[in-house]
What we know:
The protein has one domain: Rossmann fold, CATH 3.40.50. The protein is built from ten helices and 14 strands. The relative contact order is 0.12.
Amino acid sequence: MPDAANLTFVSAIGFRDMIKILVRSRSLRFTADMVRQSPTSSLARLRWSGRDVFYRSGTADPFVLYQVLLRSGKKAEYYVPPGLRPETILDIGSNIGASILYFHRQFPDAKIFGFEPHPDTFRILQENVAHLPGVTIFNYGLGATHQRIATRADQVNFGAFNTRGHFKDRGHPAATVECEVRRLDDVLREIRITQVDLIKIDCEGAEADVFSTLPDEILNHCQWIVGEFHDHTGFGVLARLAPHFHLDLKKKMFRSRFRFHACNIDKVQELSRSDVDALQR
Length: 281
């Protein structure tokens, strides 16, 4: 049996999609990294909005950049109506920084706080966003308790890393990773945040744990929440949001993961008709 480190992983991308990727990225190297994945530690870069964005060649990083940065307008992964004017943004599960770059371009005056527990991913996050004005990043995850953990992590699909100890063997190289997890209410108290306007959350199954530590007085006045849930615990969070938010879900039967948007009821009048239509597609 061949060594797993030498295997080539070919993504299921059709010819038309490949052309879209090439046109949007204007990079043959990036397109090749999207089409064929093989484990490697080398860094590559994508030119986006006048800056270099670094990613790990041969991993799932290019897919993250494509979904968040290269799908423009209302097709973007974390689309937020431009009429909103958030002053404070929490980016929970920052990965290599694509969502922070996206929000910083859309809301350049906002203060953005990003959280990423994986140490290797955090180093690339630093390269991509640490220099941006108004951006502060933390090398720990968020959860229900304050703890230090050691867990197995995929070395190709870094975005699948989670702090709950759930490891799915996809046949990729893996390694044990140590990281810190903290409670969100404690963190907000320490950095003196009493109001949050926009929350983006995607932390591979720890979302309900994170929300469990977010005080009602902050959550209920948030303007917009966008992200993913990864299991049934997300429905408990949605039940908590429902009295104060309009909810939009994108879920397929038989799949536990689903995307969602939550718009504070008090902000509905600020949405255009096209914004409402876009969220229904």
